[in-house]
């Protein structure tokens, strides 16, 4: 059965088709959910909530654009709704923000460590970092998604970058001291 037929069957509330859709996309969407969650268990909860929303709204999908993109957007929005309800963002004075680029030696840390360090960031920093750096959202879009100011998104991004730089430098220093 092709994807179009699977979508059509899901629109008809076919539970077998819903199960097949879940099996087809759950691992990809779990990866998305994990980026926006503070724990594995929370990512699982977000994924479950996302699929509930997907099945409720699938009749609204008009077969235009990427279906996978539509699924990803619902998954991200589901995770962001949880954070908006928890109000994990503090309001920052926009004038106090210094938007600096942080130069990090590409050989300083493996991608696995970098992903681990991103996951360890406090929620408010990790969300903004992921949306801006990994998913390409603008500060204005992030502000709208998270119900915060653009100044807060810029501040949280700068702080996320600074924390990552500190973790990477500490990692690099640890490697250098081990080689002595």
UniProtKB/TrEMBL annotation:
Keywords: Sigma factor, Transcription, Transcription regulation. NCBIfam families: sigma70-ECF. It comes from the Bacteria. Gene3D superfamilies: 1.10.1740.10, Winged helix-like DNA-binding domain superfamily/Winged helix DNA-binding domain (1.10.10.10). Residues 21-87 form the RNA polymerase sigma-70 region domain. Residues 112-164 form the RNA polymerase sigma factor 70 region 4 type domain. GO terms for biological process: DNA-templated transcription initiation. Belongs to the sigma-70 factor family. ECF subfamily. The keyword Transcription applies. CDD domains: Sigma70_r4. Pfam families: Sigma70_r2 (PF04542), Sigma70_r4_2 (PF08281). The keyword Transcription regulation applies. One of its GO terms (molecular function) is sigma factor activity. This is RNA polymerase sigma-70 factor, ECF subfamily. Signal peptide: none annotated.
């Amino acid at each position: 059965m092709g994807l179009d037929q699977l979508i059509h069957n899901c629109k008809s509330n076919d539970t077998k088709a819903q199960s097949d859709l879940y099996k087809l996309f759950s691992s990809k969407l779990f990866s998305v959910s994990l980026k926006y969650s503070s724990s594995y268990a929370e990512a699982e909860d977000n994924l479950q909530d996302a699929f509930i929303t997907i099945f409720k709204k699938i009749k609204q999908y008009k077969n235009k654009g990427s279906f996978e993109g539509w699924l990803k957007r619902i998954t991200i929005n589901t995770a962001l709704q949880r954070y908006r309800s928890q109000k994990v963002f503090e309001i920052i004075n926009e004038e106090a923000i210094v938007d600096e680029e942080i130069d990090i030696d590409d050989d300083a840390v493996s991608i696995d460590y970098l992903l681990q360090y991103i996951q360890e960031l406090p929620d408010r920093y990790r969300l903004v970092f992921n949306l801006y750096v990994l998913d390409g959202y603008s500060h204005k879009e992030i502000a709208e998604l998270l119900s915060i100011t653009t100044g807060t998104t810029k501040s949280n991004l700068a702080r996320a970058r600074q924390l990552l730089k500190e973790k990477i430098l500490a990692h690099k220093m640890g490697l250098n001291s081990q080689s002595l």
